[in-house]
Design a protein that fits this description.
This protein has eleven helices and twelve strands. By secondary structure, it is of the alpha/beta class. The protein has two domains: 133 residues, Aspartate Aminotransferase, domain 1 (Alpha-Beta Complex); 227 residues, Type I PLP-dependent aspartate aminotransferase-like (Major domain) (Aspartate Aminotransferase, domain 2), CATH 3.40.640.10. The structure holds pyridoxal-5'-phosphate.
Length: 375
């Protein structure tokens, strides 16, 4: 019997010392001393007693601006990219507007779109090339379209957009007077990543995060990047009028300043882990990887032909093996019943635990499963 996701999270947090955390695209490979030293110094200086500079640490803002290298676009700090996504949709969308998006997708953004009264128009992308294309976007634009949601690389599939496709989608936004929400949370994992703001600086709102690239998900820091007038419109909905967490800012500053020194090793280990997971999946009949290699630090394992439900895989792997992967239903209304998502910016030991747990789980549950589903 499968249990709700909230129960799985409660269980995983209660046992976090023994869990291989492969469920939330978090990053467990960033050198710990860098973060620890920054946090210890901030605590020693009792920075937590006072409010931060409301607009954010100028040094941090400067490092972020340099990291993106987009003069003319201003960075803004929020409590995780999530808050930036909420503010953007809340500020820029109205009742009846349509947003071109995909299924699968990071559906929390779709929920924010709906909260603003707008409607996500989800294009089914669970087939090659497993991402939007400029042609499909062009075709989907209608009189009510107000925004295009471009998540690149895409959670959960790990698919990424070639530079020419980003340019073509950005040109649609420009030509048709649409806003382009470019969520680049996983951009550091993607070779040759292109920012849509390069091609449509007026229309693009870039949402970034230090949760995944810098391994700081628990500190909840992210933000926006947009031209000043657009940023002003969005930040009317800022709730952090007194600034975002000082300790998070200290850790993000240390991480981003040193990123060029360690990001290459993090991405290489992530890729090697992805290759190991591919090997394991290849040995399990009925399991396949729709997108490989991932341009992010997660991918989807399609298990529909095994007849085993993703929820039961999540449960069995977590409770019997201490390996936490995620059932797909929270990422895709249409295809979520076909897959689990696994993330792999983890130490190789976690990947080996997956290598044992996944085949064993499919075997155990497969023996109990009803007739297999076909594609
Ligand atoms: C595409 C995407 N955007 C935003 C977020 C949220 O990021 P943050 O931790 O900065 O709120 C996630 C988290 O998984 C994500 O996958």
């Amino acid at each position: 019997m499968s249990t709700p996701a909230s129960d799985a999270f409660r269980y995983a947090h209660a046992h976090h010392h023994e869990i291989a955390w492969m469920s939330q695209n978090t990053n467990h490979l960033v050198p710990n001393e860098i973060i620890r030293t920054a946090l210890e110094a901030a605590v020693r200086d009792r920075r937590y007693e006072g409010y931060p500079l409301a607009t954010g640490d100028p040094e941090l803002l400067d490092v972020i601006a340099k990291d993106f290298g987009m003069p003319g676009l201003n960075p803004f700090l929020t409590g995780g990219g999530t808050e930036a996504l909420y503010m953007t949709t809340r500020a820029l969308l109205s009742s009846g507007d349509e947003v071109i998006a995909s299924d699968p997708s990071y559906l929390i953004i779709h929920r924010f779109v709906e909260l603003s009264g707008a409607v996500p128009k989800n294009l089914d992308i669970y087939a090659p090339p497993y991402r939007l294309t400029a042609d499909r976007v062009q075709e989907a634009v209608g009189p009510r379209t107000r925004m295009i949601l471009l998540i690149d690389p895409l959670n959960p599939l790990g698919s990424g957009y070639p530079r020419d496709e980003v340019r073509a989608i950005a040109e649609i936004a420009h030509d048709r007077h649409l806003l382009l929400l470019n969520d680049v949370t996983y951009r550091d994992f993607s070779d040759g990543h292109a920012l849509a703001a390069e091609f449509a600086p007026e229309e693009t709102v870039t949402v970034w995060s230090v949760s995944k690239n810098c391994g700081l998900a628990g500190l909840r820091l992210g933000g926006l990047l947009a031209r000043p007038e657009l940023l002003k419109t969005i930040t009317r909905f800022n709730t952090n009028d007194l600034g975002v967490n000082v300790l998070s800012q200290a850790a993000a500053l240390a991480a981003l300043r040193t990123k060029p020194q360690w990001i290459g090793a993090v991405v290489r280990q992530t890729r090697a882990n992805g290759a190991r997971i591919r090997e394991v999946v290849a040995g399990v009949s009925g399991a396949t990887l729709p997108v490989y290699p991932s341009r992010a630090n997660m991918m989807v394992i399609d298990i529909a032909p095994t007849g085993v439900s993703p929820d039961s895989v999540q449960d069995e792997m977590l409770r019997r093996h201490g390996v936490f992967v995620r059932a797909g239903n929270y990422l895709s209304p249409k295809s979520g019943g076909r897959f689990v998502r696994v993330s792999f910016s983890n130490p190789p030991g976690d990947i080996e635990r997956f290598a044992t747990a996944f085949p064993a789980t499919i075997k155990t549950l497969g023996a109990r499963a009803p007739a297999p589903r076909t594609a």
